[in-house]
Amino acid sequence: MSKVAINLLWMAGLVLPAFGQFKNILLDSMADKHGRFPIEPTVTINYKTPTTILVAAFPDHLYLTSDGGSTWKKTKSRSAFGVWDNPVLVSDFSGNMYYLHHSDPTGKNWASDEILDRIVIKKSKDGGTTWDGGTSIGHNPPKDQFNAGAIADRKGNIFVAWTEMDNYGSADEGCKSQVLFSKSSGGAKWSKPVVISKSGDCKDGDNTARGAAPAVSGDGRLFIAWTHEGIIYLDRSFDGGTMWLSNDIAVTEQAGGSSFSVPGIQKINGLPTLVCDNSKSLFNGALYLVWSEESMPNDTDIYFMRSLNYGDNWTQPLRINDDEPGSYQFMPAMTVDHVSGHIYIVYYDRREYEDDQTDVYLAYSIDNGATFKNVKISDKPFIPSADVPFGNKISIAANNGIIMPVWTRMDNGKTSLWTSIIKHEDLIGHKPEPKTGKKKKK
């Protein structure tokens, strides 16, 4: 496997003097042999060795640092099942890394063939340097498997939830989608998939059961959230994934459903993120839920809810972005630092502009989700084009006071991957730029 070293300058303090802006680090801006630029990044920090950080992105790239971000190595992923989109990374508490993605059995997905016949899972025991041959779950021809989420517990069990469709994108009345669940002790063998949700359609829209987001508590209680027909649902299992609720919990309505449009973005949705606080704080076991929705025409926002009793009751939705109504905030990702219990949410934001210029913001809470502060972390805006694939997710990880968001930006119709390695104390000491009102169109 060929490797390309990406040498990056490590700046002391990570914060630039002018208004406390954070250093943005370029991970990749190169197209592959098919002309595909990187999108849809995901990131994980190794729990056992926190200086080891791994990023994956479409179509088949991995980016590894073993020194906390001073230097990076880019590698190309391979799989006997083929490699396609929707990368997911997970670290277990023993330091093993797991990399999930869609399959591409024909090798033709670069030509827009949609053949997603299974979810592929590969394991690395050396922090992402080498990987095993991989296993798979969900293989049930001719049905399609996509949009997986994964989590690991403290015992080394891996839990995966995803959507199965009779025929992806079909508008046929009888075509069904449903959320499935499978688990493994160590990633070698997987349990028979269990159906978690009621059935939806196959259009990959509001009426599709999709966006499965698993979470696990320190004592092994499992939770899965997803969206369907304008409602975010929760199911849970207290016995490791064998028994689930007979009636799913309807957590909240999602205004306008999970599908909406944002100018300049080819495809977008408001799929939920669910995490469980496994810190040693008083909020150990708390569930945190975040999503985006179209609050009103031409206005999308980020919302947050919290449950302290395993999903039985939830706080009222809290609007995370603290700007005046009337602009777009979208594509959030959330994580919890399991050492401190602090919550971090990264998302795209257009509050400062009257056109499609887009910044990246980080919202954080040091009081377990009671309040949030917003900080702009991108050093300059970008303008996306709906003619170019942009992906539909970004990612963030945090461990022991180090926060690492990863995101996509687009310049002149070409996407690139970026990150910023942020210390919590620098985030707290951040001085925002002076407000001057919305900037004029470029």
Q: Could you characterize what this model shows?
A:
This protein has one helix and 30 strands. With 442 residues, the protein is an all-beta fold. It has one domain: Neuraminidase (6 Propeller). A five-stranded antiparallel sheet has the order 1-6-5-4-3, with no helix packed on it. Strands 2, 27, 28, 29 and 30 form a five-stranded antiparallel sheet that branches. A four-stranded antiparallel sheet has the order 7-8-9-10, with no helix packed on it. The longest helix is centred in the last third of the chain and has 5 residues. The chain is globular, with a radius of gyration of 20 Å. It starts with a strand and ends in a 14-residue tail after the last helix.
DSSP helix count? 1
Strand order in the sheet with the most strands? 1-6-5-4-3
Quaternary organisation = single chain
Shape: globular
CATH class: Mainly Beta
Class computed from helices, strands and strand pairing: mainly beta
Describe the largest sheet. Answer: 5 strands, antiparallel
Task: Give me the Rg, rounded.
Answer: 20 Å
How many distinct folded domains? Answer: 1
Low-confidence stretches: 1-20, 109-113
Average residue-wise pLDDT: 89
What's the CATH architecture?
A: 6 Propeller
Query: Could you name the CATH topology?
Result: Neuraminidase
